[in-house]
Design goal:
The complex is a heterodimer of chains A (397) and B (173). With 397 residues, chain A is α/β, with parallel strands linked by helices. Chain A has helices spanning 7-14, 27-35, 42-48, 71-77, 84-93, 102-113, 133-146, 180-193, 195-200, 221-230, 235-249, 287-295, 324-336, 349-361, 373-383, 387-396, and strands at residues 66-69, 96-99, 121-126, 150-154, 168-169, 177-178, 207-208, 214-215, 257-262, 303-308, 340-343. In chain A, strand 7 and strand 8 form a beta hairpin. Classes of the chains: A alpha/beta (397), B mainly alpha (173). Chain B: Residues 12-165 form the Small ribosomal subunit protein uS7 domain.
C-alpha cells in the first residue's frame, strides 16, 4: 500500500538505526502515562518536564525530560546558533524546550572534568541525519555559557563553502579569497553573544587595515569586531584577527574558550565556488576556512573544541555517509586525530514517549487519531524513532 | 470463472491519519500527475495553519483559549463547508437563446465547486511571489471565519440564482 510518499521523511526513517539497548526500567511508568486520559494533567506533565534549567545539574535521572531555556538567554547565547525548524518551534510554542539526552549529558560531563592546563580536547558528534547533533551541540554551548566561558559558535560551516554571492580576492594574502557578507554577519552575532569578553580582552599587536585605518596594540577586541562590521571589505581579515587573539590569550588563568562548529567536514571537503577562470576553489584558499582550521588544532589549552560532522548541507557527499572517517576524508581525519567521538543515536523508547507527550501538551498533535494508541504506533513506525522525522510528521497532523 | 480484482488506487492508504476529502483535494491540486508535490503543498498548508493558530493559542489569555481552533483538519472541513454553494446555475437552451437556470446541486458537485474555487482563487488572485501553501492557508483561515474571496464568490452565485428565479421553470427534471 502506498503510505505517505513524503520523500524526506522516508529517507530519514529508512536509515539503519543504531539505537542503544532499551532500558526497561522506565517503560512501565510510561505505559501508564500513555493510557491516561487528558483530564488528570499533572502526572503526565511530571514525566516529561523538569524544573532544572541548568544543564550542569542534569543527571541520569533527567534523561528524556525537557528543560526550558529562558528567552533572555536564547537571545544572547543563540542569536544564530539554533536550527531553523527549532527556531520556528520556539516561536510557535512561546518557549524554548530542549530534551536532556545521553550524548549531551556525556559531553557536559567530559567538559566538567577536563583539566584546563592540558591541551584542548576535540569532541566530534556524529550520527545519522536528523538524530539531534546540532541541538546537542547547542545544549553543550548553553552549559558553557552558564559557566561563563567564551563561546565561538559557527552555526553551519557549510554556508561558508557554498552559495557565496560576493567573493573577492583577499587584500592580505594574494592567493586567498574573502567572503565579506558571511564574515560580517558572523561578527555581528559573535558580538551579541560575548559582549562582556570583548571589553576585557586586549589586542597584543598593531593591525593595519588600510592606509588610514589601523588598530593599536592594547585596544579592546570589541574595536576589531566593530571594524569588521563597519568596513565589510576587511570583515574576513577581522575574523582571522579575532580568532588568532582568542587562541593566543586562552591561557588557564584567564577565560575558558569553547569553539563550537556545526558541519566541520565542510572545512576539509570541496566547495561549489569557482574563480573567475571557472576553476574550482579549494577550501584552504578561503580566508575564513583557513583561519577556522587553525582554531581546530589542539595546540592551545584552557578550553574545548566541539564539532559536528553532518551530511545535511554538505556538498559532494553521498547521503548514506554519517561516520567521521567518511565525511571528513583523509586530510580532515588526520588533522582532527586524536578526537573523542560521541555517537548521537535516534530516540529510545522513553525519549520517544517523552517527545510525544510534550507535543500533545503543547497542542501540536491535533489530529483526533493522533491521541489514540493506533496513531502513536503509526507515528513510531513512520518516524523509526528519528527525532527530525517525528517532528516533520507531527507538523501536519 | 474467476472474477477479475480491481487494482488499488495509488492514493489509498491503511493509515489512521488518511482522510478521503483531503485526498480528493490533493488530486484536484495535482498537475502533470505530480502527487508528491501536491501532497507536500497540502502538508505545508496544514503546518502553517496549525502554527498560526497554536501561536495565537499560546499567547492568548486563559479565557479565550477555548475559542481558538487549532486542528487544521477541522478548519479545513469547516472552511470547505462554508464555501459550498447551496444552489447552482445551469445553462439551458430554449428558443435559440441560452438561459442561466437555478438548480439544486448534488453533494459531490458542491464539494467539487468549493475545492475548485479555492484552488483557482489561490492560483490567480494572489501576489505572484507568495508560496502556494501560504496563499492556501490564508484563504482557508478566512473561509473558516466566513470572510474572503471564495465566500464572496459563493454569495455571488446565490444572488445570481435568486435573480434568475423566473427561469426556474425552464428546467424539466
Amino acid at each position: 500500500m502506498a503510505l505517505t510518499r513524503l520523500n524526506r521523511i522516508v529517507q530519514l526513517s529508512h536509515t539503519v538505526s543504531l539505537t542503544r539497548p532499551l532500558h526497561g526500567s522506565g517503560c512501565g511508568l510510561q505505559l501508564g502515562a500513555a493510557t491516561q486520559t487528558e483530564a488528570p494533567m499533572e502526572s503526565p506533565r511530571a514525566v516529561f518536564r523538569t524544573s532544572e534549567s541548568e544543564p550542569a545539574s542534569h543527571g541520569e535521572q533527567h534523561i528524556g525530560q525537557f528543560y526550558t531555556i529562558p528567552p533572555s538567554q536564547v537571545k544572547t547565547i543563540f542569536p544564530h546558533g539554533l536550527p531553523y525548524r527549532f527556531q520556528q518551534q520556539i516561536k510557535t510554542f512561546n518557549e524554548a524546550c530542549l530534551m536532556v539526552r545521553k550524548p549531551a549529558l556525556e559531553l557536559i560531563g567530559y567538559l566538567k572534568k577536563a583539566d584546563p592546563t592540558h591541551p584542548s580536547v576535540r569532541y566530534v558528534l556524529y550520527g545519522e541525519r536528523g538524530t539531534g547533533k546540532s541541538l546537542s551541540l547547542c545544549q553543550a554551548l548553553h552549559h558553557c555559557s552558564l559557566q561563563d566561558w567564551l563561546i565561538l559558535h559557527v552555526p553551519d560551516a557549510h554556508l561558508w563553502v557554498k552559495n557565496c554571492k560576493e567573493l573577492m580576492a583577499s587584500s592580505y594574502h594574494r592567493a586567498r579569497f574573502d567572503q565579506p557578507i558571511e564574515a560580517s554577519v558572523w561578527l555581528k552575532n559573535f558580538r551579541v553573544t560575548n559582549e562582556r569578553f570583548l571589553k576585557q580582552i586586549k589586542t597584543s599587536q598593531k593591525y593595519v587595515w588600510s592606509k588610514r585605518e589601523f588598530t593599536d596594540e592594547g585596544r579592546p577586541l570589541g574595536e576589531i569586531v566593530d571594524q569588521g562590521v563597519t568596513r565589510v571589505k576587511n570583515a574576513s581579515d577581522a575574523v582571522g584577527v579575532v580568532l588568532k587573539e582568542l587562541k593566543a590569550q586562552a591561557r588557564p588563568g584567564s577565560y575558558r574558550l569553547v569553539v563550537g562548529v556545526d558541519g566541520v567536514n565542510a572545512l576539509w571537503g570541496r566547495t561549489t565556488l569557482r574563480k573567475e577562470d571557472r576553476s574550482l576553489i579549494d577550501p584552504s584558499e578561503l580566508t575564513l576556512v583557513h583561519n577556522l582550521r587553525k582554531m581546530m588544532k589542539n595546540d592551545w589549552c584552557g578550553g574545548a573544541v566541539i564539532a559536528t560532522v553532518t551530511q545535511t548541507g554538505s556538498v559532494f557527499t553521498p547521503s548514506s555517509a554519517y561516520l567521521p572517517q567518511e565525511l571528513l576524508g583523509k586530510e580532515g581525519f588526520d588533522f582532527l586525530d586524536p578526537f573523542l567521538p560521541v555517537l548521537v543515536p535516534a530516540y529510545s523508547e522513553k525519549e520517544f514517549e517523552s517527545s510525544y507527550q510534550y507535543y500533545r501538551d503543547r497542542r501540536w498533535i491535533q489530529h483526533h487519531t493522533g491521541h489514540t494508541e493506533e496513531g502513536k504506533k503509526e507515528l513510531l513506525f513512520l518516524s523509526n524513532r528519528n527525532p527530525a522525522a517525528l517532528e516533520r510528521l507531527c507538523a501536519f497532523l | 470463472a474467476v472474477r477479475p480484482i480491481k487494482a488499488a488506487p495509488p492514493g489509498l492508504t491503511s493509515s489512521v491519519f488518511s482522510d478521503p476529502t483531503v485526498s480528493k483535494f490533493v488530486n484536484m491540486m495535482m498537475e502533470d500527475g505530480d502527487k508528491v508535490l501536491a501532497r507536500s503543498i497540502i502538508t505545508q498548508t496544514f503546518e502553517s495553519m496549525k502554527r498560526k493558530q497554536v501561536e495565537k493559542y499560546h499567547k492568548a489569555p486563559a479565557t479565550e483559549k477555548e475559542g481558538i481552533e487549532c486542528n487544521p483538519y477541522t478548519i479545513f472541513h469547516q472552511a470547505l463547508e462554508n464555501c459550498k454553494p447551496i444552489i447552482g446555475l445551469i445553462s439551458i437552451q430554449k428558443g435559440g437563446k441560452y438561459y442561466q437556470v437555478p438548480t439544486p446541486l448534488t453533494d459531490s458537485r458542491r464539494r467539487f465547486l468549493a475545492m475548485k474555487w479555492l484552488i483557482t482563487e489561490c492560483r490567480d488572485n494572489k501576489h505572484r511571489r507568495t508560496h502556494m501553501y501560504e496563499k492556501l492557508s490564508q484563504e482557508l483561515l478566512a473561509a473558516f471565519m466566513n470572510e474572503g474571496n471564495v465566500i464572496k464568490r459563493k454569495h455571488d452565485m446565490h444572488k445570481m440564482a435568486e435573480a434568475n428565479r423566473a427561469f426556474a421553470h425552464y428546467r424539466w427534471w
